[in-house]
Amino acid sequence: MKKKHYSEYIITVIALVIVAIVCYYQYNSSQNSSFSNPTDEIILLYTNDVHCYVDQYIGYSGVAAYKEELKKTNPNVLLIDCGDAIQGEHIGTIDQGEFIVDMMNKAGYDLAILGNHEFDYGMGSLKTVISRSNAKYLNCNISYDGSYGNALAKTASYTVLTFGNTKVGFVGVTTPGSINTSTPVYFQENGRFVYDFKSHLNGKDLFETVQKSVDDCKKEGANYVVVIAHLGVGNGYEPYTSINLISNTTGVDAVLDGHSHSVIPCMIVKNKEGKDVILSSTGEKLRNLGEMTISPKGISARLITDYKNKEKELGEFISSIRSTYNAELRKVIGTATAHLSMYDEKYVRLIRNRETNLGDWCTDALLYSSKGDIAFFNGGSIRADIKKGTVTLGDLKDVNGFNNMICKISATGQEILDTLEMSYRKTMNVVTVDGKWSVGEFGGFLQVSGLKCKIDTSHPSYVIVDDNGMFEKVNGPRRVKDVMVLENGEYVPIDPNKNYIVVATDYLIKESGDGINIFCNHKLLEDCSIHVTQAYIDYFKHLNGDFSAYEKPQGRIIVE
Questions:
Q1: Helix, strand, or coil (residue 127)
Q2: I need a labelling partner for 90 at 20 to 30 A (CA). Which of 165, 258, 267, 274 fits?
Q3: Which residues are registered as beta bridge partners of 278?
Q4: Which domain holds residue 230?
Q5: 216-227: buried (b, 16+ CB within 10 Å) or exposed (e) per residue?
């Protein structure tokens, strides 16, 4: 991270700490109160979107230490994870999340839900993760109607836990967007979707499903109901946002959220009946730890940002795992002459809604390693900057933490036009609204090589998708215009009837990633021929680390 970006981030964190202090909220719960002692408290600790940052910032050993500290004076402490724990760094991919679950077990997690990235290693691996976990996994909105066996059979829609004379219901919700933002083929058998995430009816199906589980908690005597969600907030997560969930349900007292990496110490949202509901989210990577307190006085929420203590045994366990592969990751590849970034100067993540110099470099690396006419790389799979200076193998592996492989097909110009239209359907002419929420973000936003285009945001997208978010057709004027393909060193207009050689990852070509299913039935000219990290290494060495051509984005994607 650049020093400027880091200092701005620190200022933001300080501001959020102040907000967390000011935003202390007490919910009038006299009608729910069943505490036998006025000093009784139930404390919910929560994390979200850790993404394998197991020993940075607060770290799992810090979480474990804080829980142990609280339990010395209060037995009613619960540790909860709101999804996206097992993917993001090599320590997760090395054994497809099992080491991470071992760490979470040692940290003392009690409840967890599935984020969209819990599915990244396949349903078989996820089944193993769930079985290995000491935490109870909750999932109210994913059903199965296949014949090969439900990998989520050990999850429960909800649970009601008793603390003295008080009962608290917990309902687990996973974003329906998982079905296309993870790997769509994982949710299929023989080409048919067998896992249903309740993505129908523009959110209504999801909200009704959650309401049923909330009502069931009440029937079992729950005095409070807390929804553990991986939904997110902001334009890019519509219609399945946590705010929409609250607005369309009743009986929920609080929502602990993840997915959008939003830092929300304590937000008050009105439910369907106009009653106040607390919404909180910790951000990402264990920069913060959430703490919600349920007491006779009401409910309060805050974020802990500066806890320094560590649980020694867990810290040693994490260190022992890291030592097994750190030496390999520290191998130096070379020296980079410039910083390639996912972000702008204000540290706003652009990789999912704008061309970036890092996106240009990544797609050029694909074309260098596997010759073709055009390369695509979805922004959601690009996960870390390449910093100026010494670059290690670990640095390049961090850029793409999904173990993606390169594939190659032949596609018509029209299919490429449809792909771009699908990819850029959420792009907006602004990146943020009031500097608060990033808008127009989409993991399927394609960084490109070998072509350039313009995105006209003056009218809405007319892309039609099915209930699972898969591309069907364009039913109106197109937003993507002036598409030019690089031929013999010059850009010429794309020919809809011509065939072009397309290079991309297996996620896009074989697995219909982000709902872009246009290439999934094409004959493979190359089938998982090169690992993406190897392509990065080869291209880095080819350039000898000279990134002078990538000081700025090259004008391949113009947003108007």
A1: helix
A2: 258
A3: 254, 268
A4: 3-322
A5: bbbeeebbbbbb
DSSP-derived letter for residue 117 is: G
340 and 314 within one domain? no
Contact partners, residue 109, CB within 8 Å, separation at least 6: 79, 80, 81, 133, 134, 135
Tell me 265's DSSP state: E
State which of 284, 305, 322 marks the end of a domain: 322
What is the SS3 assignment for 28? coil
Instruction: Give 88 or 335, the one with higher predicted confidence.
Output: 335
| 224 residue type, one letter | Y
**331 and 268 in a common domain:** no
- What CATH number does residue 146 fall under? 3.60.21.10
Report whether 45 contacts 291 (CB < 8 A).
yes
Q: How many residues does the chain have?
A: 560
80-126 pLDDT, tens digit each: 999 999 988 878 877 889 999 999 999 999 999 999 999 988 999 99
Rounded-to-integer distance, Cα 341 and Cα 553, Å = 10
Q: State pLDDT tens for residues 255-284.
A: 999 999 999 999 999 999 999 999 999 999
DSSP strand E in 258-415: where? Answer: 263-270, 276-282, 289-295, 298-304, 332-336, 374-378, 389-392, 406-412
- What is the pLDDT at residue 37? 52
**Domain identity same for 336 and 300:** no
Task: Give yes or no: residues 302 and 367 share one domain.
Answer: no
CA 503 to chain centre: 25
Task: Answer whether 272's CB lies under 8 Å from 465's CB.
Answer: no
The residue with greater pLDDT, 179 or 516, is: 516
Query: For residue 338, what pLDDT is reported?
Result: 97
Task: Give the rounded distance of the alpha carbon of 488 from its chain centre.
Answer: 39
